[in-house]
């Protein structure tokens, strides 16, 4: 008699299906999508070696992150940690209210795991991941395409997207380049489509003073931020993305701030697990984050490979120290391109306010409230800070409240439980 669950089977034994295992509904799109991928020159696969790490060659010398097994291992742990942090949300993959996406783009897809998970979740959608380096994956769902391309080039995808996603893209672009990327996102989204971005900080913090001020980790963030500023591609993306997304014309902007623990020190079981995975990311990722930036843009002069390795070895030991109750801040922004109706209304208001501005001065001026409606599209009004909640959101029950209490955020005050 065969034991239930045994893997030893007779020829016509079927594997019993767990009735609680939910099948994904929907019809897969099995078009020959892979014919759209193109063969890549082997140099793109090989990359270029520098200081013992492999880097992409598509934009040589332009992106700080390595493209090798160690880096992909770090990204994978970071991705899993993010999923754990949002595991109590209705959907851990994203927060935008996207229900039935058809065309999705993941910019800087890295190992492609988010794109693959999205393809599994939405079998009738086409999910594209794009990166400078070919993702090291052997298999992907038929409705997922991972492409090698530079998003700073003009986009050539024929279809528009209903959802564009980015994660951990800090330091990938200069301020002007970010502007270009967000504009391309805006232009290539269907009206009403969503953009979502998740970013982590470089600064390591602790709330209980358990991280000594003279530790390597306490100065880690400043060190990397200074080098990235020198490189022209600042790593403070976490702090700048909201303003740039708003400036690109997106509305309905939502934000969630996380305290992302490093290490399993948190009492909350979700944060404990997220922290363990995040610690794995930091231990395998730190050398890759520091090597390129410090050997090129380190202070007071570029560091040697050995100097970086010594710094990272000390930092890694500090990460492993259970007495350090450390975390970084992370932020998720999601926002919407106006619908066609909103765009039409906005252009009507803009043209009306332009006309009234051209009237002779003795005519009744357009009220400030009315004329400022048109300015919410591309350039926020100079009278109000660009991070202020736009008036049309103030009454929105959907607006996420910040959950950070350390005083660095002005967006809320309740303790974070993600
Ligand atoms: C730190 S990784 C994050 C990967 C993935 N999103 C994740 O969260 O695990 C950033 C990725 O952005 C890619 N990238 C940087 N500049 C890019 C560009 N101009 N075009 C496309 N991808 C780019 C890098 O090659 C890298 O794989």
Plain-language structure description:
The protein has 418 residues and is α/β, with parallel strands linked by helices. It has a single domain (33-338, 377-393), classed as Rossmann fold (3-Layer(aba) Sandwich), CATH 3.40.50.150. Helices cover 33% and strands 15% of the residues. The protein has ten helices and nine strands. Strand 3, helix 3 and strand 4 (126-131) form a beta-alpha-beta unit. The radius of gyration is 24 Å and the shape is globular. The structure holds S-adenosylmethionine (SAM). S-adenosylmethionine (SAM) is lined by residues 56, 59, 63, 65, 75, 78-79, 108-110, 130-133, 150-152, 167-169, 172.
Summarize the structure.
The chain has ten helices and nine strands. With 418 residues, it is an alpha/beta fold.
From N to C, what is the helix and strand string? Answer: HEEHEHEEEHEHHEHHEHH
- Across the major sheet, the strand order is 5-4-3-6-7-9-8
Second CATH tier, the architecture: 3-Layer(aba) Sandwich
Oligomer: single chain
CATH topology: Rossmann fold
Strand residues, percent: 15-25%
Output the CATH homologous superfamily: Vaccinia Virus protein VP39
What is the CA-atom radius of gyration, in angstroms?
24 Å
Poorly predicted regions are 1-9, 18-39, 361-418
pLDDT averaged over residues: 81
Structural class: alpha/beta
Measured between the Cα atoms of the first and last residue, the distance is 47 Å
């Amino acid at each position: 008699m065969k034991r239930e669950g045994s893997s030893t089977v007779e020829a016509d034994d079927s594997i019993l299906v767990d009735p609680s295992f939910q099948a994904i509904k929907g019809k897969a799109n099995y078009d020959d999508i892979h014919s759209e991928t193109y063969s890549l020159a082997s140099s793109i696969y090989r990359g270029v070696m520098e200081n013992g790490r492999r880097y992409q060659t598509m934009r040589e010398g332009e992106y700080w992150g390595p493209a090798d097994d160690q880096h992909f291992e770090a990204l994978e742990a970071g991705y899993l940690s993010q999923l754990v942090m949002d595991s109590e949300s209705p959907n851990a993959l994203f927060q935008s209210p996207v229900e039935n996406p058809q065309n999705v783009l993941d910019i800087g897809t890295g190992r492609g795991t988010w794109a693959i998970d999205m393809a599994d979740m939405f079998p009738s959608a086409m999910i594209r991941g794009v990166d400078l380096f070919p993702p090291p994956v052997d298999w992907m769902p038929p409705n997922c395409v991972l492409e090698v391309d530079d998003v700073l080039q003009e986009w050539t995808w024929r279809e528009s997207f209903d959802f564009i996603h980015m994660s951990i893209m800090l330091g990938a672009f200069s301020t002007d380049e970010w502007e270009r990327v967000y504009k391309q996102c805006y232009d290539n989204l269907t009206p009403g489509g969503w953009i979502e971005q998740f970013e982590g900080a470089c600064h390591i913090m602790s709330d209980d003073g358990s991280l000594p001020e003279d530790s390597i980790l306490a100065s880690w963030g400043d060190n990397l931020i200074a080098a990235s500023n020198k490189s022209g591609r600042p790593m403070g993306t976490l702090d700048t993305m909201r303003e740039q997304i708003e400036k690109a014309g997106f509305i309905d902007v939502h934000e969630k701030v996380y305290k992302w623990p490093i290490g399993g020190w948190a009492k909350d079981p979700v944060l404990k697990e997220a922290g363990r995975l995040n610690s794995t990311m930091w231990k395998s990722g730190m050398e890759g984050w520091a090597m390129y930036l410090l050997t090129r843009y380190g202070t007071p002069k570029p560091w040697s490979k050995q100097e970086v390795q010594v710094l990272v070895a000390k930092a890694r030991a500090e990460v492993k120290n259970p007495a350090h109750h450390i975390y970084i801040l992370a932020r998720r922004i999601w926002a919407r391109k106006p619908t066609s109706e909103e765009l039409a209304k906005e252009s009507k208001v803009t043209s009306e306010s332009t006309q009234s501005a051209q009237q002779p001065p003795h005519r009744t001026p357009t009220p400030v409230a009315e004329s400022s409606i048109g300015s919410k599209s591309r350039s926020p009004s100079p009278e109000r800070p660009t991070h202020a909640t736009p008036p049309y959101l103030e009454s929105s029950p959907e607006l996420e409240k910040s959950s950070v209490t350390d005083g660095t955020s002005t967006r809320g005050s309740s303790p974070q439980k993600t």
